[in-house]
């Protein structure tokens, strides 16, 4: 109850800027059918390589490339996001999951931490049929609902990576965040989680180790076998990594670097923000299965202030409820 936010952590990056080019968007708009590229920008391989070279001042692709009509959030909702200093967030695009109320938080945490769920209109309609309707404060229980219009990708898994990975862009004034996948119920006090996973361990980022495998290439085989991505897209990504010399069993501080990313805890520093930008760029370039790109980005950036906690700790943070149904692709030309 007495926990307060500590002073900001030091970082080697003094200024992190995000690429934005409305003029290029006009050209891209005539060239590409998929408006996802209008959201991400057309990152070249040279720009990709430069994004891994840490310096005092950097400029990288990080979504929100310049077309404000894509991933559109109402002005009132943006004002709410701007006021959050710490946040627990989730999202449900396509109506594939129910909304699970967080539990076991203190009143002191409720006064310091926002709870935000990003939905699209499909989810609003699906949840209203189950009696979950926003009140006059746009809340359902503890969750403040943010309805997003004009999602950039036809693949809802990619749309979900935006609030998952680009929280620093959606919450520009937040210092800390906890991401929880929509299939889970968060069941811990967030201030206590920050203290245990970040402050006590002198970390700026915390994520669970993978529970089953320690090899990104074996993980790729498992993803294809479970039909969670096509063999072609996984092959393109892992061939790129293999050609760059990425090892089969990447290690980090003596632990496996392969992660399970349903819970992400972090301080919003320029370095962790860069990490999330680069990770997002890998996901949108290759496959939506973010566990394939995480260890690659981790080792390329030589990111050290990270707490990779065991699976049992992740299970202590959330109740895993599972997906209600599989989401369908959307027509990005008519979903606005």
TrEMBL record:
User: Which Pfam family, any one of them, does this sequence belong to?
Assistant: TOD1_MUCI70
- InterPro entries linked to this entry: TOD1_MUCI70, TOD1_MUCI70_glycTrfase_dom
Q: Which residues form the TOD1/MUCI70 glycosyltransferase-like domain?
A: 35-323
Name the record gives this protein: TOD1/MUCI70 glycosyltransferase-like domain-containing protein
């Amino acid at each position: 109850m007495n926990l307060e936010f500590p002073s900001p952590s030091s970082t080697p990056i003094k200024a992190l800027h995000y690429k934005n080019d409305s003029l290029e968007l006009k050209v891209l708009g005539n060239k590409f059918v998929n408006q996802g590229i209008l959201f991400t920008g057309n990152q070249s391989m040279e720009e990709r390589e430069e994004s891994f070279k840490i310096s005092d001042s950097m400029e990288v692709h990080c979504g929100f490339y310049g077309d404000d009509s894509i991933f559109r959030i109402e002005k009132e909702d943006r004002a709410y996001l701007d006021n959050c200093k710490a946040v627990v967030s989730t999202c449900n695009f396509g109506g594939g999951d129910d909304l699970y109320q967080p539990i076991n938080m203190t009143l002191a945490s409720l006064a310091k931490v926002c709870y935000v769920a990003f939905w699209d209109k499909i989810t609003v309609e699906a949840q209203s049929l189950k009696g979950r309707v926003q009140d006059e404060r746009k809340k359902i229980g503890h969750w403040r609902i943010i309805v997003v219009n004009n999602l950039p990708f036809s693949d809802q898994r990619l749309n979900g990576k935006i609030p998952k990975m680009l929280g620093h862009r959606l919450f520009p004034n937040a210092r800390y965040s906890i991401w929880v996948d929509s299939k889970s119920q968060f069941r811990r006090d967030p201030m206590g989680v920050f203290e245990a996973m970040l402050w006590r361990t002198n970390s700026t980022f915390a994520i669970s180790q993978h529970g089953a495998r320690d090899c990104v290439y074996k993980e790729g085989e498992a993803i294809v076998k479970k039909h969670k991505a096509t063999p072609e897209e996984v092959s393109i990504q892992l061939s790129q990594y293999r050609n760059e010399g990425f090892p089969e069993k990447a290690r980090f501080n003596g632990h496996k670097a392969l992660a399970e990313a349903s819970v992400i805890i972090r301080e919003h520093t320029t370095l962790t923000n860069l990490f999330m930008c680069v990770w997002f760029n890998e996901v949108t370039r290759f496959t939506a299965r973010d566990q394939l790109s995480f260890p690659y980005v981790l080792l390329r950036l030589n990111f050290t202030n990270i707490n990779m906690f065991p699976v049992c700790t992740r299970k202590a943070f959330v109740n895993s409820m599972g997906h209600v149904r599989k989401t369908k692709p959307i027509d990005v030309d008519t979903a606005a």
